[in-house]
């Protein structure tokens, strides 16, 4: 049996990840590719509810603790993620471990380094493709709904952008997220299609940070 692809969208707050994930899933399904969309954090689990309380500033948590919760929120989906990929389902993820590393490292807390954060997620599969929706924090801040959660501050988002840039490797495709929704979608389809085909042809699933 051929496996599904693991496609991840990353980027700053309000850059259009959810919009593009939804359009991609719709497109892939219309072409007969079995596809599901997932979001991280998954706020529906009990761990996700603690994360939600933290992000919406209803609860205060130590930075190391909240980082562990984000990691655990992915690990609790690990078995199902691996099962679906092996069964041929392509997963489109709205954020993943790359956000975990970038947001925590951007805080600059001693000890919570990129290397430390990476080390906690080596049990998870690596993305076949990370679509980085690149846009300045000033431009995303001008979009509706910005500023409602803990990290939605322009200065902090600039540090997150720098962290994302330092994580990029050959599996990343950078797309200018300031264009129109339809133009971005066309660019996304162009980078995703070959990756889905490679996974279908049997390219092995990688491990995070290998
Ligand atoms: N976080 C973390 O710290 N550690 C972790 O491990 C993980 C996450 C996984 C919550 O994430 C926070 O958790 C996040 C990172 C941190 N903090 N921040 N910042 P989230 O994914 O739940 O939150 P989000 O990034 O803020 O997602 P969002 O608000 O849903 O934004 P989005 O998905 O990127 O954008 P959107 O919903 O598709 O679009 C936003 C608006 O822009 C909407 O009105 C659209 O209609 C509009 N839009 C979209 N595309 C366009 C274009 N091309 N032009 C014009 N307008 C557009």
What are the defining features of this structure?
210 residues, alpha/beta, 5-stranded parallel sheet, 5 strands, 48% helix, binds ligand Z5A, ATP binding, transferase
Q: What are the SSEs and their pairings?
A:
Layout: E1 6-11, H1 17-30, E2 35-39, H2 46-55, H3 63-75, H4 78-86, E3 90-94, H5 97-106, H6 114-119, E4 129-134, H7 137-141, H8 154-167, E5 172-176, H9 181-200
Parallel strand pairs: 1-3, 1-4, 2-3, 4-5
Helix pairs in contact: 1-9, 2-3, 5-8
Bound molecules: ligand Z5A.
Domain Thymidylate kinase-like: 9-188
Protein name: Thymidylate kinase
Keywords: ATP-binding, Kinase, Nucleotide biosynthesis, Nucleotide-binding, Transferase
User: How much beta, percentage-wise?
Assistant: 5-15%
Shape: globular
Structural class: alpha/beta
Ligands (ions, cofactors included) = ligand Z5A
Task: Write the element-wise H/E pattern from the N-terminal end onward.
Answer: EHEHHHEHHEHHEH
Low-pLDDT residue intervals, each spanning 5 or more residues? none
Strand order of the largest sheet: 2-3-1-4-5
- Helix share, percent: 40-55%
What's the pLDDT, averaged over the residues?
Answer: 96
Largest sheet: 5 strands, parallel
Gap between N and C termini, in Å?
Answer: 25 Å
Radius of gyration: 16 Å
How many individual helices?
Answer: 9
What is the number of strand segments? 5
């Amino acid at each position: 049996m051929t496996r599904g692809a693991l496609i991840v969208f990353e980027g700053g707050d309000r850059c259009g990840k959810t919009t593009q994930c939804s359009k991609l899933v719709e497109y892939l399904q219309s072409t007969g590719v079995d596809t599901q969309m997932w979001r991280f954090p998954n706020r529906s689990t009990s761990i996700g509810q603690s994360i939600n309380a933290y992000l919406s500033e209803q609860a205060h948590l130590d930075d190391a603790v909240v980082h562990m919760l984000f990691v655990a929120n992915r690990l609790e989906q690990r078995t199902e993620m691996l099962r679906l990929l092996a069964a041929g389902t392509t997963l489109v993820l709205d954020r993943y471990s790359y956000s975990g590393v970038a947001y925590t490292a951007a805080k600059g807390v001693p000890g919570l380094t990129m290397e430390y954060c990476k080390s906690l997620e080596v049990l998870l599969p690596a993305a076949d493709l990370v679509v980085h929706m690149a846009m300045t924090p000033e431009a995303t801040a001008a979009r509706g709904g910005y500023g409602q959660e803990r990290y939605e501050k322009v200065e902090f988002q600039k540090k997150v952008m720098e962290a994302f840039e330092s994580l990029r490797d050959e599996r990343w495709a950078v797309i200018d997220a300031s264009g129109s929704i339809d133009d971005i979608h066309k660019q996304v389809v162009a980078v995703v299609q070959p990756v889905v085909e490679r996974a279908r042809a049997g390219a092995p699933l990688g491990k995070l940070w290998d």
